[in-house]
Amino acid sequence: MVTLNGNSLTFSEVKKVLYDRDKVHFSEDSMKRVEESRKAVEKIVSEERIVYGITTGFGKFSDVLIGKEDVEELQLNLIRSHACGVGDPFPEIVSRAMVLLRANALLKGFSGVRPVVMERLLDLINAGIHPVIPQQGSLGASGDLAPLSHLALVLIGEGEVFYKGKRTSAIDALTKEDIFPISLTAKEGLALINGTQAMTAMGVIAYLEAEKLAYQAELISAVTVEGLRGIIDVFDEDIQIVRGYREQAETAERIRRFLSDSRLTTKQGEIRVQDAYSIRCIPQVHGASWQALNYVKEKLEIEMNAATDNPLLFDNGEKVLSGGNFHGQPIALAMDFLAIAVAELANISERRIERLVNPQLNDLPPFLSPEPGLQSGAMIMQYVAASLVSENKTLAHPASVDSIPSSANQEDHVSMGTIASRHAYQIIQNTRRVLAIEAICSLQAAETRGKEKMATATRELLEEARKIVPFIEHDRVFSKDIEKMADWLKTQTMNFAEKKKNKTKA
């Protein structure tokens, strides 16, 4: 059971809720804050004070006053009109994350929703009812209006959900779980949709997958070092210390440990004096990506516990402030950084693949073919990797440098943070396939040289991977191999690199 209080949600807890399907509930203190905040909204309505989004319209309509007899219709119209997202839905795990993060933000007690709204959000999580939310249509300010409107629809019994492996109507799923839809009252519709939870939820899932992938990239690259009989000296601790970057040093340390008992690595001058940059600079390049990942994690942890709607209520409603916490710029920049960092893991991986298959760059069978000429071996796998990294370069163009005015120029600068998070996620999927290709090629090369000479850690990877993709003895449809390897990397709950890291800590 994970307890939400609006202030201290961690990545560890998020993983428990998302992947282990832990139940959630709210702390007593957080619900007290919600109740006090709600009283403030009701007082504003009864006194007919002019407060944005409570007794006024939205966006450019902020100057239109709404009578207290119409505040409920105002909220319902808001949700229905703003639920205009398009395109394929977010992955179900992202939808689950979105509900979790929106609930946590509202529990901070600055948004003015009723306790029943919190209860329904947690009901969705605990019952495994996940809104179907189209991916496209958010500018990332004022928050993720369109995506979160599709989430809010489910609370009122409209829209669609993912439930028990099927896509169905919200009311059908709610009925089966004995969950009653609610009618939104003053401020509640706005509080539900004026936030950054779509980009943040997508960002959280992207980060968790990228972190795992970064560890796997290190172990796969270690196998490539063996397959190419690479020079181990470049991972020496002294080289890393004088540069001064902790992440670079940590990457080099993990690779040293992976290869500590390998008989396939060489010393400088033994076969060659220097390796190419894609081998020699693994700590520097992978380490720089780790720096970016650490930055992204820090920003996401802040945003997961942030109040991001508008207006916000302070001092029991005596102080109601309209601001811009819904603006997604911090996450937009972080997602662009994540996209670039992961794209670089693919870039350097593709160069290592080239060195594994190019007969002019190694002493292995050309293209790792079992019968060069008659059989093409891994020749076109390198083409696929090159195509994926080229696509990544297009996707890595920063979304955050773009902005376009909306709401009759009232909202004249937006973040495009949700686009940034979606692009980062797509880059991660592409990069995993590139690393899958490197894994296939590096394992083929190392096994060709003699698996008995491989390090303990890399041989363990070989033995497990061979259950997924066998040794190449004859040309076959390698598309299946690539997808199987990529799926295997994605579904590993504890990858080999993390195991080695944990052993190191012990």
TrEMBL record:
Pfam families per record: Lyase_aromatic
An annotated GO cellular component: cytoplasm
Keywords: Cytoplasm, Histidine metabolism, Lyase
Alphabetized InterPro entries for the sequence: Aromatic_Lyase (IPR001106), Fumarase/histidase_N (IPR024083), HutH (IPR005921), L-Aspartase-like (IPR008948), Phe/His_NH3-lyase_AS (IPR022313)
Pathway: Amino-acid degradation; L-histidine degradation into L-glutamate; N-formimidoyl-L-glutamate from L-histidine: step 1/3
Cross-link named 5-imidazolinone (Ala-Gly), sites: 141-143
PTM note: Contains an active site 4-methylidene-imidazol-5-one (MIO), which is formed autocatalytically by cyclization and dehydration of residues Ala-Ser-Gly.
Cellular localisation: Cytoplasm
Entry's Gene Ontology BP terms: L-histidine catabolic process to glutamate and formamide; L-histidine catabolic process to glutamate and formate
Primary location recorded for the protein, binned into one broad class: cytoplasm
Reaction equations catalysed: L-histidine = trans-urocanate + NH4(+)
EC number(s) given by UniProt: 4.3.1.3
Modified residues (2,3-didehydroalanine (Ser)): 142
Record-level Gene Ontology MF annotations: histidine ammonia-lyase activity
HAMAP family in the cross-refs: His_ammonia_lyase
Family the UniProt entry places it in: Belongs to the PAL/histidase family.
NCBIfam families: hutH, PRK09367.1
The protein's name in its UniProt record: Histidine ammonia-lyase
Species classification: Bacteria, Bacillati, Bacillota, Bacilli, Bacillales
